[in-house]
Amino acid sequence: MSRARINQMANKYMNHEMISLHTDLPEFPEGRISLLYAVLSHQPLTSAHKDLLAVVTSLVQMGLDTHDMVENSSGGLREGTKEMRSQQLKVLAGDYFSSRFYHLLSQAGQIETIRRLSEGVCNVNRLKMILYGKMKQMKLTAEEYLHIGTGLRSELFLSFTSYMSGLCERLWPELVERFSRCEMLLQEIGKVEKTASLPSSWGVWHIMQEGAEEDRRTLADRKEDVNVIKALLHKYEVADKLGALLRQSTGQLQALLLKLQSDKLARELQPLIEPFLKATGQHRATVLKELG
Fold first, then answer.
1. How far is residue 78's CA from residue 50's CA, in Å, rounded to a whole number?
2. Do 144 and 26 lie in a common domain?
3. d(CA 56, CA 103)
4. Does pTM top 0.85 for this prediction?
5. In degrees rounded to 5, what are phi and psi of residue 262?
6. Number of helices (H) and strands (E), helices first, in the chain?
7. Residue 210 in contact with residue 183, Cβ under 8 Å?
8. 3-class state of residue 280 by DSSP
9. Which residues contact 120 (CB under 8 A, 6 or more apart)?
10. What is the pLDDT of residue 200?
11. Same domain as 148, residue 291
12. Are 151 and 77 in the same domain?
């Protein structure tokens, strides 16, 4: 099934006029959902329910990601009505997506899946508390930022480990973790290129960990100044370092695909890696040759 088809299936349950008119939504997790769908398609226990499981997982993930877009604000009455409405709708949209998840699974009698995904949500919220606590105390390292962020992306999908069998069951946790890490690294590269969300980025925590004392002090004092952050990211060659990390993780992901017993599944998953290969200037044939 194509990414567009999976997105279309989920949109059937996410589409709401009030939401689409008055607020933005996060990016749909196409890559991870496509990964899940492809693997479930090859599992005896889940192949018949792969459409439902992919849709409900996307609804839960979109609910979590939508809530993450809600900004704490003390603007009160000074805040614009349009912005206040957008923030309120993000909260409601996240709750709405979660309610659709429960409804669809309960209708299908998938109570165990409700339990497993609910546990996944709890684990995601636990990781968020750890991340925010470390960030607030300025005790977060760049690798911790990457590790926890990867966990936030992969936790829901790990709920399906016990649905797998054989080699897939053993490889699934690492496959999801490595894929999620690649997704996050690609997003971090995008932040540097587009100067988006720079105050909360791998580059900032890398400089706070490895940078000169003067530069660390500058970041701490002027953490909302995009121009200052951008200059420091360039000074410490953050884009190049992220590219090297992505190249390494993509190679490890490619190696995992070669371990799969099913050549058909490996071929289905290969296109999902192409964005990572493209971002690092690699090509599929070259990587395969290197892995030998």
1. 47
2. no
3. 9
4. yes
5. -95, 115
6. 14, 0
7. no
8. coil
9. 60, 155, 156, 157, 158, 159
10. 82
11. yes
12. no
Stretch 229-236: mean pLDDT: 94
Q: Based on the domain organization, do 57 and 195 belong to the same domain?
A: no
Is 39 or 195 the better-scoring residue by pLDDT? 39
> What are 250's two structure tokens?
């993509």
CA angle 158, 265, 31 (to 5 degrees): 50
Q: What residues make up the domain containing 176?
A: 140-292
Q: How far apart are CA 257 and CA 206, in angstroms?
A: 30
Q: Give 239: exposed, middle or buried? Use CB within 10 Å, 0-12, 13-18, 19+.
A: middle
3-state secondary structure of 65: helix
Only one residue has tokens 């090509």, namely: 283
Number of domains in the chain: 2
- What proportion of the chain, given as a percentage, has pLDDT over 70? 91
| Alpha carbon 164 to chain centroid, angstroms | 22
What is the enclosing helix (H) or strand (E) of 285?
helix 284-291
Residue with tokens 């003067």: 214
pLDDT of amino acid 207: 95
Six-digit token pair at 93?
A: 């949209």
